[in-house]
Each structure stands twice: as structure tokens, then as C-alpha cells.
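Escalation from tier 1.

The customer reports that the assembly of two entities below gives different C-alpha cells on two consecutive runs. Tier 1 could not reproduce it. I'm attaching the input and our single run for tier 2 to review.
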Amino acid sequence: MSSDNRYVGSQLYKIRHSAAHIMAQAVLEHFPEAQIAIGPPIEDGFYYDFDLPRALTDEDLAWIENRMKAIIRKEVSFAVREVSPDEALAFFKDQVFKRELIEDLVHGRTDENGEQIAAPAAKLTFYTQDTFTDLCRGPHVANSREINPDAISVTFKKPAGAYWRGDEKRPQLTRIYGTAWETVEALQDYLTRLEEARKRDHRVVGERLDLFTFSPLVGKGLPLWKPKGAILRDTLERWLRETQIENGYDPVVTPHIGNLNLYRTSGHYPYYKDSQYAPIQVDDDEFLLKPMNCPHHIMIYKSEMRSYRDLPVRYAEFGTVYRYEQSGELTGLTRVRGFTVDDAHLFVTPEQLVDEFKAVVRLIQYVFNTLGFSDFRARVGVRDPKSDKYVGGDENWEKAAAAIIEACDSLGLNYHVAEGEAAFYGPKLDFIFRDVLKREWQLGTVQVDYNLPERFELEYVAEDGTRQRPIMIHRAPFGSIERFTGIMIEHFNGAFPVWVSPVQAVLIPIADRHSAYAAEVAKRLRGIGMRVEVDAGKARMGAKIAVAREKLVPYMLIVGDKDAAAGTVSVRLRTDEDLGALPLDEFVEMARRVIESKSLELR
RNA sequence: GCCACCGUAGCUCAAUGGCAGAGCAUCCGCCUUGUAAGCGGACGGUUAAGGGUUCGAGUCCCUUCGGUGGCUCCA
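Tier 1 run:
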């Protein structure tokens, strides 16, 4: 889905949409008995779904691609005509999916609550090219000569299963993906970008840098952090923990399970039932691996009588939560079954709400800016008005959304409102980050919640002695530390800022006799808190450099006779810049400055 | 969960249904090195697990486990 509305109706959009039709024609020539479903343009290409008599082979795909090119070269025109519903049904008498689409269009679509979401259509349109006619609203190119036959590909990606209308209870179809561009160069750029993304894959880089591993014996979706990965996330956590304490947060610690009744009260249990591990029976009680930290934090709030003078109360915890994701949804660190949330819950008075919300947003901006994550947009997620999966009354929801929007406006944040993107207990503000490859990731989130305080009957004593209900703000800048680390690995391609790099410097003695000096330098650097290794192996210097480069160690410090004599280190950066021999004091000063300032540069 | 594909040494990958191999890593030697991998040797395998077909299975079939891509961006 492109957020760019200029895409729809553009020449590229028409090219891709038309290529999808040509692909359907080719597939029908190859498998005359195939049932065709839908074939829209998508970001970077198009797809078409088919019900095929057998699984596709690479040869089938190659045949389809070649046939598409041949059809395009015939310079076939695309003709549109209006048809009546009866005519359309007669034409597609053997195509069950098309008939269903036609029926829906004629009767209008309704959702599961019986509300109409599309008006009935009296007239439909057909697009025809060459021997193929499809039910389609267009638009298309006028003639296939507008499509560059050398700038399309369907063999670039494997076909995949896709449920008819995304519904797992309905037939599973074969989805063939295609990509199409205006020029061969644009196609090549796209394929290069895919290749780059593949090389940066955090599962590949994570293996190379010894950051984490998985074990089938431990369980799928349960990452194991190796020392290098653990120090990386620990560095992020320590920094955020300190930053939060400076900003008035109080650390709390809560257990990994909780009584099922806790989650019945919060509403998590019914809401997240399908994505939770089954309850654990202990004596006469049932316990749940916690899917969220908020109920535990709420019980800490509730453990004391609160005065308005105590508020805002800000409880922070790196809390590990467990969710039962469908096995096919699991991927590396970005989708796991156990992960740690940099969670905090703020309990505030109505008067404090907007200011506290703004302070949270500023904290999140500070966190992202520090890491060099500067390209992000904000999304205000509100309820889907057609859904009933939310808790609480309309008034609370409207107040909460109004507070978020007021805060965004006064911060001058560039945001847009998206329906159906709220949490079940309240609307939220999400930060959506674009990485160096222009891929979007949803990161930090802030939620305003009037409902859990109500469900748990939270109170504070106001100035006038009356009992009042606080409002909660839920927030997590990183969201899941696992997922965030995965995104960081791909964004930086493993070349992390020095302050978070698992190994910040490697000492490379040229010959055995330099090992003592190397150890001495390493000790000095560890003394200022640096993470340093000494490569005392018997490989040559060149080989040690090659290994350190591979591991993306920011500083390679080569020490030989000249350095030992002069008290210098010969500094090579992971960018291959050679800084030559620096007096040790000078290097220490430089490294200290880079690390303490959390600089994104190496010097 | 479902569909398709995949699973050979720690990693990357070879092996027509016919003796399971290489490079890297690890370990042991030799070399004592100045900016992208010096030389030699050793170790390493129930070919993911289990079953079947076959004179013979890494290879073919079935089951299980694990991984990868995908599962509305609604004509």
C-alpha cells in the first residue's frame, strides 16, 4: 500500500495493472482450467491470484514470463466497455471468483455487522486485451507498447499461497507476483535494492556478528542473545533507563506471569485470547504468561492511597511479555513469541494529561534522534467505527483522541489520523520510521487510556478531598527491544554507532613481541569503559584486519615496534580510513568524545 | 495454522539412485610479520528426526521437527 495517492492512476500504476492482466492471459493459456481471482497493482509491482490444477514450477514461471513478453511485443490494445451485471455473469459463467465479485458489486458490499461499505453498482466495466477479458475498473494503458517488455519480471519472486479475500476459512489460491517498471534501469535498481535488503537481513548479519541464535529445542520464536548481542541491547537499555530516571520515571519490576483474573479485569484475556499462550493451571488457579505489563503496573499503583500531590506517577520496566504468534508469522527478531518491551505507564490527572503526553513525545523524539533515526512520520490511531472490539464508552475515546491531537498540534508534529489503528483500550500515537532502504517500520507508541483506570477503579484524592480517577498513558519508544534491535541491524547494516557497538576497538599486535604492549593499551581503554578485544592470534596483521572489518569493529588499533617505542596506536577505521599513528592519549581523547557524545561519526 | 519451497561439518556450499567432499572457522605445528586472509597438519557427519521403496537412498515416497517466502494494497 502506497501512502502516496499520486501512485494510483499514474503511468506506472497503469503499466503494472495492465501487466497483471497480461500475466493472467499467459497463465490461462498455460492452464486453461485455471480459476482467476484478482490482480491489482501493488507497491513495486503487481500480483494475480489463481486457483491452479497443480503447484507451479520454475519452468512454468519462466514460460509465463516469456509469454508475457511476447504478448506485450504484439502491441495489443486495451479496450474498455460497459456491461450489464447479467452479461458479466454470463461471460464469467465458469469463473467462480469473478462471479462472486460481480454479485458483491451488484448488491453492494456489507461488513460482518451488516453495514454497507460499498454502494450497489448497476454497470460494470470489462477490459479486453488480445484474447483476454477481465472484470476491472481500470485504468490501463491504451496499448501494450507502453509497457517495456524488458522491464518486467515474474521470476524474481517465488509464488506464494494467499487465501481468497484473505480469509483463512476460504480457498487458498496461488499468488504470482510480478514487478514492472518504465525502464530496464529502474527494474535493475529495484532488483539491486532487493538484493541489498537480503544482504542486510538481520538474521544474516546477526549470525556474522554473533549477536543471537535460535534453538529448536528452546522453541521457535524464542531468541537466545549471545554475549555480543546482549551487550548491544543492554547498552540501549541502560541508556534508556538512565534517561527515564532523569525524566522522573520510577523503575518497577514485576513477574512474568499473572493470575488469569487480572487479565479478565483488564480485558486483555478476551481481547488477546487467540494470541496468548494457553493458561497454566496451578492448584485451583489459572495463570497467564503476561501478554502486557500494564495490569501489573496498575496493581502497584493501586497498592497505596494516592494523593493528587503524588501524580504524575511514572512506572517504567523492561518487561518481557509472551504472545502466541502463528508459527508461520515468526521471522527472526522482528516477529517473536517472547520479547521485552521498554514499557512505562503514567498515571496522571486530567490537568496533567496534555503536558505529560507532550513530554513523552519529546522523550521518544530524543531517543530516535540520538540513534540517527530521523526519517519518521506520526500516525494517530483511532477506533474503527465499524468494529466492536474496543472497551469503554464513546466519551472516553473522544476525550483521549482530542488530547492526542491537541498535543501533536502544539508540538508541531506532522501526523495523520488512521482509523482502526487504536489499541483496544484507547487511541494511540505511533511513530513510523523509514530506514535507509526506505522501508517503513512502526516503532515507538504512546497511548492515552481512560478505560483501564475505570476497569480497575483507580483513584487519587484530589485537592478538595474527593476521589478522582487518574488517566493512564502507556508508552514504549522502542516497542519490542528484539524487534528494534533487528531494525537497527538492518538500518546500520551492522555498522552500529560506536557507543552501542559490541566491540568498540580491536588491538592488532603485528608480532608476538607486541602482545604485552597491546594488552597494556587494552587495559587503558577498558579503564575508560571501552569494550576492547586483543587479537593475539597467530594470523598475520592483514588477516586480523580482514576479520575485524568483517565484524565491523569501529576502531582497529595496530601496534608494532614503532608504536610500542613511541607510545602510539596506528588507527584504522572500519570505513578503511587510515588515521596513521596517534599518541595513545590522543586516541583515548577522541574515542571518549565519540562515545560520550553518542556520535554517529567515528571521529 | 494454511500453501509453496528448503534442510549435507559451527558457517558457506559440492556430491547421475552407487566409497559423503571442499573452503572458512576450531585445535596443533612452522613463519615473527606494518594496513582486505602466509604455509602445513589434525579434528569435525546417524546427510534435521523417524519410517518406507530399492541389491543399494544425501538423492525417490510418507510422517514429524525446523527454516524461508506469502496469506486483500479488496473488480
